[in-house]
Amino acid sequence: QVQLVESGGGLVQPGGSLRLSCSVSGLLFSHYQYKWFRQPPEKPREWVASIGLVNGYVDYADAVKGRFAISRDNQKKAVFLQMNNLKPEDTAVYYCRVDDYWGQGTQVTVSS
Fold it and tell me: Which of 7, 20, 28, 104 could be stapled to 81 by a disulfide with Cβ–Cβ 3.0 to 4.6 Å?
């Protein structure tokens, strides 16, 4: 049974930082690519970032490029999303995805 568990969300002021984690079980972690998505309030879910089989391949949505960084730790079976210089428009539920599997999401709220 594949499980993805996100953590690290919370309330942060504009300009602040958060680091999201996604712990994965139930599959051979190192063999898969991973993605982060987010769903802002009353908006559709959108892709945020992707990471390939090694940390060398990464890709970002234009809205987060230069502020967010995706990484992975194959030994810990975890994917991370470092979010810096957060803006109110980054407020959303953030989800980790592999193949057709999704986590339950973690809430990020950016507000003063």
Answer: 20
Q: Give the residue from 55, 62, 48, 51 showing the smallest Cα distance to 95.
A: 48
CA distance 23 to 6: 7
Average pLDDT taken over every residue of the chain? 96
The two tokens of residue 106 are 């973690």
pLDDT in tens, 33-56: 999 999 999 999 999 999 998 767
pLDDT at 77 over 70: yes
SS (H, E, C) the chain: CCEEEEECCEEECCCCCEEEEEEEECCCHHHCCEEEEEECCCCCCEEEEEECCCCCCEEECCCCCCCEEEEEECCCCEEEEEECCCCHHHCEEEEEEECCEECCCEEEEECC
* Nearest alpha-carbon partner for 25 in 79, 70, 68: 79
